[in-house]
Amino acid sequence: MTAPLLEIENLRTWFYTDSGVARSVDGVSLHVDHGETLGVVGESGCGKSVTALSILRLIRAPGRIEAGSAIRFEGKDLLTLAERDIQHVRGNRIAMVFQEPMTALNPVFTVGDQIAEVARIHAGMSRRDAWEKAVEMLRLVGIPAPEQRAHEYPHQLSGGMRQRVVIAMALVMNPALVIADEPTTALDVTIQAQILELLADLTKRFGTSILLITHDLGVVAENCARVIVMYAGQVVEEATTAELFSHPHHPYTEGLLGAMPRVGGNAERLATIPGTVPSPTAWPDGCRFRERCMYAWERCAKEHPPLYQIGAGHVSRCHLAVEPERRSQPHLPVAAQQGVTAA
Amino acid sequence: MTSKSPAGAGIAAPTVRRRLRGDRRVWIALGVLAAIVLTAVFAPLLAPYDPRAQLDIAHLQSQPPSLAHPLGTDTFSRDVLSRLIYGTRVSLAVALVAVSISITFGTLLGAVAGYVGGAIDAVLMRFVDAAFSIPTLLLLIVVIALWGDISVVSLTLLIAGVGWFTVSRLVRAETLAVRDADYVVAARALGVPGWRILGWHVLPNAIGPAIVSATLAVGNVILLEAGLSYLGIGVRPPTPSWGNIIEEGATRVSDVWWLTLFPGLAILVTVFACNALGDALRDALDPRQLLPAHDDAPFA
Amino acid sequence: MTLLSVRDLTKHFPIKRGVFGQVSGQVRAVDGVSFDIAAGETLALVGESGCGKSTTGRVVLRLIEPTSGSVQFDGNDVFALGAGDLRRLRRKMQIVFQDPFSSLNPRMSIGAIVREGLTIHKLAEGAAADARVRELLEEVGLRPEYASRYPHEFSGGQRQRVGIARALSVEPTFIVCDEPVSALDVSVQAQVVNLLQDLQRDRGLAYLFIAHDLSVVEHIANRVAVMYLGHIVELAAVNDLYGTPIMPYTQALLSAVPAPDPGVKRERILLAGDVPSPANPPSGCVFHPRCQHPARDAACAAIVPPLEEKAPGHWAACIKQPPTAASWEAQKAAGGTNSPEFFLPRAALHRSVDSTSAHQSLPA
């Protein structure tokens, strides 16, 4: 069994602010294999974006990656690399695609220049060669008339086109891993479909791995082989996509699946998860989800659940793994009991 | 109930007040300015001599600093320290009053121009554009020269009259941005009348830059008044002001250096404090966040 | 009973160029939109960015002045009202916004925000107003003690609730919901959608629900209108639209929605290219350059398709989907070569989904 391409071990990224220490990422471990697309799902405040930024060490003060964290990529621990070496990795071996293409692109340079710049920096290409490469990449991502389009500025392109340019920039150096942080959230649904199709196609062709971060379970279902669910700075469930959707274990995952309206579904009322995510400056003791959980019992308040093995490749951070009979005793979550709730 | 914020990672974005409290510059600046204001207020108690009293024209003319006169005496044997202390009143009063008037006027004009738009906006802004093309100092010099003997009150009003252009532009720009905000549209949808929208919704959110501008303007006006008085056309002696104390010693700086140095230091410290406060205010009002700009979700 | 009646609503925004701001073109944001909403009903307006749905919502409330067309609300001609009458009518028709972070005045406490409507319309004063504000906050699921807090102390979902409370304060009968949940997390979306449904049931509200998320819309709407480049291209009861979408654009839109079910393997209808600019819409049918209908031809570029009733209560604007008033002769005269034929690609279907089979069955 080959070693995974990326292995994150006990990542902790904390922010030292005036309001206290925000433990945005608090012990996250995951791995991405060669050629696979891993989905990371979670809502705001769960730490998924900070995790992504941590991999490429893009965290600035007051944030800091704590000691004891390890991020192994292609055999090296990225956290111990010198600045010059990590720059060699960024854009070259690991590329990132952000949510907002308009802010990811520099408005004063043509899109051709921006893609060419990546090639010049990392491959040392001459101006002409880099430009040729840029045009080729634009063609690859499906932009019509790429020779002309390369001379255009970001504001002259539509949102979908810009995101394609960003993807072209990410793929220029044929990286082993692409981290896509909500790459389609800002796009219309038909464009989203195009972009996801493009990503799937290119990764199959080049064997690129993708770490796909999103809040949309539908996107995960259609594009990812494996899924990780994050909550309150930690991984709460990990499984293959099929397994997660058919047999979710963690109550948060269940809640998310129930809260999603789906086309063709006929629920009268959407199932909701009462309460809100706690503040990262003050994670509760024990299980961080317990106030919103309909199965929680005394153990959940006292003991922080580890990741229990549920099945092959399926783990869940929930005490229901060892006391499954509690699942037949649902009750109103504490957050809902506190009188009027509010999201 | 936990509070969440648009700062991402679920941390409350520090409020303006919070940021100001934590900024050391603010405390130092406020301390300095407080000292100056108190000096002005308690001038009679603090000044050892009457600032206009010519103490001993024969023997105490142009004396360097000594124990009896820590900041020396001027050409009319008046105690410089006392003049400096009383001069604080004049310089500060001119600055504070002129800035208050010009900021208020400029803010209202800018807000109305920005909110109402159309012809009113066009006319006002063309006027401001034209006014900008005239150098303020030159204009003031010309007007005062024609005026003749100008009183401190008139001087203050004149300075106010040429000082409102910048802030009106700033507030207009901010108003344009606020005007299209959803909460303003919501107020219109509720049926809130225009004047109330302007007063309750637009102005409170558009005055941020005006406050910064006002703080910096105080420093600028002190400099301006000092400059005019130095040229002999600002506050006229025997009323002391920082500028005209410097003016008295202007021709013989190396001989009567105390007439230049001490008022100069006073101006330096005050303007510096104003600028520091203004900078701190600008930073505090800046909507930039402390955490990485990247949110975990489209909106927190 | 029809509460709102919109006819041929048009809004063009002039594009100004040059030193003197000469008008060089028009952005045809809304181009001849017509629909009705009955009391207590939810009509959803869906479409992608730039289709004109938000503008439609605001023009209906006359928050933006129309270019032409008419809106009848509760027997009043909205565009003909004077300022005073319009203000009185505003009580009945309100709006909830998309962005929870810009829809509340950051300098006002949420209690003051909710109270303003009561003050303006003299519905309550002093202690009575305070009591009413507390009631409204409770009704939307917020603790009344929060009235003195400021918007920045709340999360997106909570702010959205404040916005809803503000809209409810003046006792409206109709609310334009402009993408009210698009900016919220999934679990929070669910809470707010449920709230909106409860309020509709308790207060008999009618909604114009503007959204781009087709899954949320199916959940809350009675009827759905699909917009593209300023036109309504399809209008039907929700089950009909999702079950048998007639318009090629609707079909593509539905097939693009990612299904949270890994078992479903759906052929996606991928639209080529991007949405054209509303400043320069295609001639004839605005969708024709991207349309994949097998009968698409030159007539589509020449004839503007009228919104016609293709089945009872199901309207669509396509000259190639029968029945159509655009006669075959007229189409041929315009350069048409293909006769109309009904086309419903399998990929568009969401009903009768069988997750164990790769195919989906057509409805009987």
What does this structure look like?
- The complex is a heterotrimer of chains A (343), B (300) and C (364).
- With 343 residues, chain A is of the alpha/beta class.
- Helices cover 33% and strands 22% of the residues of chain A.
- In chain A, the strands form two sheets. In chain A, strands 7-8-9-3-10-11-13-12 form an eight-stranded mixed sheet, with helices on both faces.
- The longest helix of chain A is centred in the middle third of the chain and has 18 residues, at 189-206.
- The N and C termini of chain A lie far apart (45 Å).
- Chain B is mainly α.
- Chain B has one domain (13-295): MetI-like fold (Orthogonal Bundle).
- The radius of gyration of chain B is 24 Å and the shape is elongated.
- Mean pLDDT of chain B is 82; it is low at 1-12 and 289-300.
- With 364 residues, chain C is an alpha/beta fold.
- Chain C contains eleven helices and twelve strands.
- Chain C has helices at residues 53-60, 83-90, 110-120, 126-139, 156-168, 186-203, 214-220, 238-243, 248-256, 298-302, 328-333; strands at residues 2-17, 22-38, 42-46, 68-73, 76-77, 93-96, 174-178, 206-211, 223-228, 231-237, 308-311, 314-316.
- An eight-stranded mixed sheet of chain C has the order 6-7-8-3-9-10-12-11, sandwiched between helices. Chain C has a four-stranded antiparallel sheet with strand order 2-1-4-5.
- Classes of the chains: A alpha/beta (343), B mainly alpha (300), C alpha/beta (364).
- Chains in contact: A-B, A-C, B-C.
- Chains A and C meet through helix 7, helix 8, helix 9, helix 10 and helix 11 of A and helix 5, helix 6, helix 7 and helix 9 of C.
Write the layout of secondary structure elements.
The complex is a heterotrimer of chains A (343), B (300) and C (364).
Chain A: E1 6-17, E2 20-32, E3 37-41, H1 48-55, E4 63-65, E5 70-73, E6 76-77, H2 83-89, E7 94-97, H3 101-104, H4 111-123, H5 127-140, H6 146-149, H7 159-171, E8 177-181, H8 189-206, E9 209-214, H9 217-223, E10 226-231, E11 234-240, H10 241-246, H11 251-259, H12 298-302, E12 308-311, E13 314-316, H13 334-337
Parallel strand pairs in A: 3-9, 3-10, 7-8, 8-9
Antiparallel strand pairs in A: 1-2, 1-4, 1-5, 5-6, 10-11, 11-13, 12-13
Helix pairs in contact in A: 4-5, 4-7, 5-7, 7-8
Chain B: H1 16-22, H2 24-41, H3 43-46, H4 80-116, H5 118-132, H6 136-147, H7 152-162, H8 165-179, H9 182-190, H10 194-206, H11 208-230, H12 242-248, H13 257-285
Helix pairs in contact in B: 1-13, 2-4, 2-13, 4-5, 4-7, 4-8, 4-10, 4-11, 5-8, 8-10, 8-11, 9-10, 11-12, 11-13, 12-13
Chain C: E1 2-17, E2 22-38, E3 42-46, H1 53-60, E4 68-73, E5 76-77, H2 83-90, E6 93-96, H3 110-120, H4 126-139, H5 156-168, E7 174-178, H6 186-203, E8 206-211, H7 214-220, E9 223-228, E10 231-237, H8 238-243, H9 248-256, H10 298-302, E11 308-311, E12 314-316, H11 328-333
Parallel strand pairs in C: 3-8, 3-9, 6-7, 7-8
Antiparallel strand pairs in C: 1-2, 1-4, 4-5, 9-10, 10-12, 11-12
Helix pairs in contact in C: 3-4, 3-5, 4-5
